[in-house]
Amino acid sequence: MAQHVITPTSARPFDRDTINQDLLQPVLHTSRRFYGLTSILAAFVLAGLAAFLFQAYAGLGVSGLRRPVFWGFYITNFVFWIGISHAGTLISAILRLVNARWRRPVTRCAEAITVFALLIGASFPVIHLGRPWLFFWLIPYPSERGIWPNFRSPLLWDFCAILTYITGSLIFLLLPMIPDLATVRDRTAGWRKRVYGAVALGWRGTPREWHRLEMAMRIMAVVIIPVAVSVHTIVSWDFAMAPVPMWHSTVFGPYFVAGAIFSGIAALIIAMAFLRKFLHLEQYLKPIHFDNLGKLLLVMSLLWIYFIVAERLTVWYGNSTPEMAVLLATERGKFLPLFWAMVCCNFLIPFPILAIKRFRTVTGTVIASTTVVIGMWLERFLIVVPSLEFKYLPFDWGHYRPSWVEITITLATFAAMPLLYLLFVKFVPIISMWELKGGEPVAAPRVEAASSWTQSRVPTEEPLPGSVD
Amino acid sequence: MAHRWGMVIDLDRCTGCEACVVACHAENNIATVGEKQAAMGRAIHWIRVERHWEGEFPNVRVRFQPIPCQQCDDAPCEPVCPTYASYQNAQGLNAQIYNRCIGTRYCANACPYTGRYFNWFNPSWDKPLQLQLNPDVSIRESGVMEKCTFCFQRILAAEANAQAEKRQLRDGEFSPACVQSCPSEAMVFGDLDDPQSEVSRLSRSDRGVKLLGEVGTFPKVTYLTRES
Questions:
Q1: Global pTM?
Q2: Residue in A61, A134, A154 closest to B121 by CB
Q3: Sequence spans of domains, chain B
Q4: Which of B42, B83, B109 sits opposite A244 (nearest CB)?
Q5: Hey, is B121 helix, strand or coil?
Q6: Span B5-224: which CATH code?
Q7: C-alpha closest to that of A88 among A356, A385, A421
């Protein structure tokens, strides 16, 4: 890993002031481009909101759903976005635990993706309800109705798992933000100072506080990994627990988790490339980060092709009539173009790009990541829809086509993600400044022993970042 | 007093006339969704007659198979419902409580027989059908799932009658609308727990098969296969 240690370029050596100046720039100054982009994205989101309200008012019939395809775009989006959310916690937590030092500028980008993708994903189970105003009946609480929800239903497991994951990943995002929020507090005045002061929770940067933060982060990094794995396993069980051809499969849990991490890394690479370009963070998000994440993406691409072969080859050799109807419809029948587009997007295109070192550049990894995100959405669609269209009795087979309502809401979520991200970048430094300051070999590069991930950072004599000067 | 209601459908006798479908619509206040919605696949029929063609022209045969809810003993629709809208009642029927349903449609996906129907919009009827609604059956609003109940309102009425007259229910004393209206008497309804009942005698027949028995749903509807 020695060659992966970030070394400052000769042009701009890192020091506290440069870091503060570069990374606080987007927080302290607002460009006209920000307002323009925000309004465009907000318009899309509002259009999606209007479409949802129209659907709730008129009835779910305004969507393209029909018997026998009772789940379509909405559940596809649900699985897709929950998958994207695996960018943050898993990647960031694993990188923290293994003490990968190149992770430092990457973690917060990833953790923010998690929280926003989860919020978007978790809205779909409500959007797709026939009576969305009664969504709270899914929540287990002692109510005047005197009836508890059904704990045998995977949808209830979903609710519990996702709520846990949102809570956990929010803590995981907020904890390491505290010192940076304190830094912002110290550099602003007026109402901003009060707001940042409140969210910084009175951080002063005493060794005691650093120690507690360190402990909390270490605990969260360990706790969040099993939570993340369980969430997508449970999402897969929404399908696997129903006796539907090609859904009812034991491979679904790990298959979904692998796919989720796969799409999560791709989303992270895309987000990082945008940040690098628009916030001029070339000095912080360097080719080495894209190279390393590209390698991770390569591993996940191989894992994905392994799972899909394992799943489909088993079904093919099993040769049971209902499953073969679905298998052939996806591979050779009406879903043929989508299926092979998915294979291209998830494997045939990204594999050579990521495997050949010369192509594993910033541009290369972004191209690969874009195809992966498209491919993973197609994968979710091809899991949800063909099994329902070709379920058991051929007389009842049907065709699903989404309506403008579903398409609008889907586009709105793809606008909601950058919008939330943009607002986040506006209010919080997107790169963890204190981790960078602590971890960077600034004046005298020192080789860290196999120490805990924060040890290098805990300063001794110098004034601590975010402390009151 | 406990009964285990079941049905036998003799495929040799079914002529595919769809009288059962019409009777079911009239008895259970099933909405007519209109041509456009029906063409999309949104028609609601608690019982449907599936039509299968066999052979090559000119030696073609058509087979009919009426499919109501199979009222499974191990119904896949029940455990997946998060609100207990779909549950098994004391008489072994897969009941649907409309007021509890929030419309996740999970049950409809889980049902191997595609025997569950969703209200995509508020119900409406082609005139003058709105004038003949059955007061014993509630109307289902937009966003809830509905399905065959084996005409549970008739079961309750018959039980109340028998109780008032202080006697046991007699086999064949009442039947669901589909069974009642079948001109070729292809369908038989009754108590499977009563070894003397016709339905229990027929369901033990050598011709008896369960639809998609391999899925492990243990349906209470038995089909008598064609021999002619």
A1: 0.91
A2: A61
A3: 5-224
A4: B109
A5: coil
A6: 3.30.70.20
A7: A421
